[in-house]
Structures
1.
Amino acid sequence: MSEVHAEVDKLDGNKESIHPHAEPFDHPTGWRRYYYHPVTQVSMLGFVCFMGPGIFIALTGLGGGGQVNSSVQANASAILYATFAFFGLFSGSINNVLGPRWTLILGTLGYSLYIASFLVINIHPDAGAFVVAAGAILGVCAALLWTAQGSLMMAYPTEGQKGMFISIFWTIFNLGGIVGSAVAFGTSFESTVISNGTYVGFLILTLIGVFLPLLMANPDKVIRTDGTRVNQVRCPSWKTELFRLYVALKTDPWIILLFPMFFASNYCYTWEYNNYNGAIFTIRARGLNSLMSYTSQVFGSVFLGYLILDQKRVRRRVRALYGWILVFLMAFIAHGWAYFYQKTYTRAQATKDAHKIDIMDETYIAHVWLMIVHGFLDSMLQTYAYWLIGAMSNDPAKLAVFTGFCTLILIKHHTDKSLQSAGAAAAWSTDAAAILYMNIFLSTWGLMVASMIFAAPMVYLRVTDHTDVEDETR
């Protein structure tokens, strides 16, 4: 055991090790057998995110939060992801102290406030400061929610089921974006703006999501399909948890090579939703585009997670390589296609040009297919990032630290969240500063390709065919 782990043991006193050996347990009987089943719990987790982040991404997918002027939403998103990035550093520790259910509840509250702020600005157009403040608060809440989500989603399955469980979660979660986009499309079909009723409907759904975590089981009562119990995330001191952040990075430095991927995964949404969907389409076309994009994300997650990454007939190292190749090729296909569209308009032209592409236009079909392809790519990248982190550890406490720290660089809204958030904050800041669309697009393309190149050594050298107990404690 390393000196670092010895220090952690000292800080924890006589508490149980964070890397306990898995022991078989008898499965519950009766209705408890279904309630405590990992698939049931990950599905309930999906519905929590359906009601919160799912509705949030539906709103974001409309471009500018459904507003004609997207500057307020861009500023709110920039500060949202900045606070997400900062608090993502500590959200794993908070999750371990409060427990995942209460962390989820606190996290979902921010989404309700954020949706309410758009209702307010729809009624009072000068309330932009309230939207920005709500964005800052949501950043804190989102860091909590996604850290709890990541630690649970990757702790419930056995090693051979992680891709499937990621797919189950992403399918349900993205249904929030699909349903929200469908509602927005239907209510704005004969309108040029998003109605108050749409925002009220979104607000009600997010409030329902606040109470859903109360219906979930405590993780330590869930029995995996192989008979092992999900490791309980302990509640040690803050000093121990902050030190554990250092331990996680020192004992598993390979995760640093995934930072560019986490950063790039949410950086892309600014161009897709504001600089493409929000720039050149009518309101109802934006709603339909968002609907198609989130629908394709469901298929992208199932395709990569279930059909590729969880194929038991193929060794895990080989599956990791297949996943890398598919995501890398898809990144070039999607952005190569998008480049030809981006060349046809600028920020100045999109602002001044009164004509927007509508669903009845002849050119619409080709343009919406680009949204579909990018949605497919987005979910593949997110699924692959989660799967790689799940391949590094089976311990929820360690995963909570990884998910929290990485959230700091990624945020989709989702182990990679800290880094995701930093990427999204940077991207939304460029949009708020009115940087050229082409520059934002090229930076998006370049970051995604570079991130895959950085991840390649980790995929080849760190991913093993099985995560042993020794891997957890070395």
Note: The radius of gyration is 21 Å.
2.
Amino acid sequence: MELVGSPLTATRAHPRSTPTKFLPAISTMASSYKNRFPYYPLPQSFSLPWMPSAYYKTAAINPTLAPFSKSSQGLTPSKMLPLISNRTTLFTRYTPDDWYRSNLTNYKESETSRHNAERLRVDTSRMILDKYQQTKRTQVQSTKNLGERVNDIEFWKSELCHELDEMIRETNALSDMKKRLERALAETEAPLQVTQECLLHREKRMGIDLVHDDVEKQLFTEVDVIRSCQERMQQYLDKAKVQLASNRAAQHELEIDLVNKQAAHRIDDKCHHLRNTSDGISYYRGVERIDATISVPESWAKFTDNNILCSQSERVASAKLRDNIENLLMVTANEMWCQFNSVNVAFTNRIAETADAKSKIQTHLAKTLQEIFQIEMNIETIRKAIRDKGPPLKVAQTRLDERTRRPNMELCRDAAQLRLVNEVHEIDETIQSLQQRLRDAEDTLQMLVRAKSALEHDLAVKANSLFIDQEKCMGMRKTFPSTVRLVGYV
């Protein structure tokens, strides 16, 4: 397209000022046509031919609004393109009709937007009210369901508590009977234990302390008399343990169910009392898509009912077993007094000889232990001396390290430098000598420890023999359990 302008030879040193009597430039109408690029005259550097054909050709073109470029927003008048000649400004792109039509279009668009906005506000208000009522009804129904669930949980909680109390009482009764049986077994086992431990521990004596005498003959006879009673007691004790384990398993199931009911009651009661103004409510996005349920109301109630029925059956079996154990204890209490008084004579001489040897060994061991204590104190002193040399060595080495950072000629091997080097060497030599002394002291300590171990071993041999004869054998055979103790009451 050829543009109208000055003659081909016309050039201007300075742009003319814009006439004020003509129609305004397109740029002054930018506020009425948003997102449109304003018209700016071409610069004077362009040579436009002054020809009629060019004028008619240009005037025949329908003006269009170019897109408003972001790069042109914010241009100052000084940065805009210079205006062309006054003759060019006579030919504008728009007519007054275009201007009025543009304004009418903007008015209609504004009125349409306002009408749509008003209709949207009315519809939104109606929708908000409907959704509020729907949400409120849903929340009321949820609260009611939670209240019914809380009542169901409270009912089964009371049933579980009642059965759990009964099971605890029965379990405690069976546990007491089991303890009586264990005490009776321990008491009836006392003579057998004495005999077996005498035979067993006397065989454990070492070296010359192993002596065979007439005591062992009576000990073997006493073993056969007691074992028949122990075998029957052990059978019922095993039954009691199995039944007690069954009772505790049923009790455990009841307790777990009760704990779960309590936790569910606490959670549902909290949910039942939650309101829109409650503290602690928050968003948990996606929680409605999580289905962690594993039961339905029917299976939930059946589960608790089965636990209660299982507990009741175990209680019946436990009561029957307690009666059988009571009868057994009365029968076995009268069979324990025949072989007790025939094996308590042959221990006195051997005990005296063993006690004398033990006393002498203890004297030597006490002296060795005192020396070990002294050498350990010495070792600790040496170690402390070595630790005390650490800070001075750190100070000297830190000083040397810091002095290595002196610049240029300041790195002087002066008296301070030499003394610090000597100080490090002296401390190192001191630490090495102390460590050598520490090794010597530790070697001496090892020798003392080996000597102590030898004395302790010999003392253990004598103490073992003395303990077997005096404590294990004679000590256990001084008394025999009474009938009250044999039936497990004491």
Note: Residues 15 and 82 are 7 Å apart (CA to CA).
3.
Amino acid sequence: MEYLFVFAQSHEEFRVPELLSISELHGFTIGFDRYANVLDKAIKRPFMILMLDKEEHAHILAQRCILIKSVHEFYAEGASYEVLHEQNSRARPQWERYIPDTSFKFHVLGYNFTIGQRRQRQIIESFAYMDFLGKIEMKNPEVTLTVFEEYESGRAPDGGLHKDGEFTQVYFGRLVVGGTARSLMGTFDVKKRQYFGNTSMEAEISLLMANQTLASPGKLIYDPFIGTGSMAYTTAYFGAFVYGSDIDGRQMRGKDKTPGIIRAAAQYGVASRIMDLCTFDITNHPWRCGNFFDAIITDPPYGVRAGAKRLGRKKIREDRLQPATPRPNEPYIPPTKPYELSQLVTDLVLLARYLLRPGGRLVFFLPTVSDEYAPPDINTVLCEGMELVANSLQDFGSWGRRLITIKKTAHTEYLPPSFDSVREAEESRDTHVPAHKDFREKYFQGFKKDGER
């Protein structure tokens, strides 16, 4: 059966991956038959007509997918009301069961346009042939019939404002369920959180990332760059147990006696699902066995607000053969050096292959330079046993960040990665240079080309 999905007009490229992830989590499929060759264009619009086997699946998606505003049983569409009514008449077997004694109301909405009350009444009266005999109930009807008029974004072709009735497409259907998951954006609003930092991820993105991990009760999820814990709260909210680590423990702890992440997790009622928080460098990790986690979710530091670090010295000084001895009663603080982004991403994928169970997912953000990005940028970080599932862009103009979802397809038990040896092998041969290489330097140079720097 076909259903009309109405989406929030944000993060268009994230819609389909989110739908597919939640349907996979619950074991059903979604049909995109209408968009076989035009899916890239279709996701730019707020409406999509998709196939579902059961109405129950629409409820599951609306309760979990952050980008769904509402789902409707689809009756008709057209470029004019004549076409719409003709198609709706043919769909009579779908709605005739509501004719005898079902309370109902009509809802008329315009996308990119506000429809006046008088014309709304005219539109509703044009459906008189449906002959509904039930009571009109505006507050709690048994059936809500919805008309959507879609107008092009921006101004009309002649430069003026859109005129009433000059829509590009009109849709009609029965409301099945509203997108209840969107209320979680308010629940996890960073401004209302007890503990957050300047790198804390916004609520909507954190929820989208959690959905990409297939977070659900009993799953074990790891964030190797947990920072202030934004993704830990949303994945734990969906029932997963979360383990976090960071090279800088101050981000996790905060200044109070109780670690900041634990305080914020308690605010959301998920403190019991934060398994532990540890301080270490992922290239010197303590994991002694692999195939352990169901998912890895993270937002690696890429240098815009905080640069990535790893253990090691920036440069060996000839005049200092021995490391400086710490003063009495003073803790030893190991030296760190910059962690170049393309190396970090390669290491992260190798670590994920080692730690993930077969079928497990790695979900992370990758910043890229818009003018330099090419598909091989992502393909070059993949390795044997790891497969790209989704690549969704959040565009900021001259640069953007891509939500990358990679799935472990291999059932082989891999040895812990030897990061330095792999890096030396990669650097020894001529390979594709990705747009995210040296991203920090490019960002602070304003993404100027080589000749302009």
Note: Residues 134 and 336 are 72 Å apart (CA to CA).
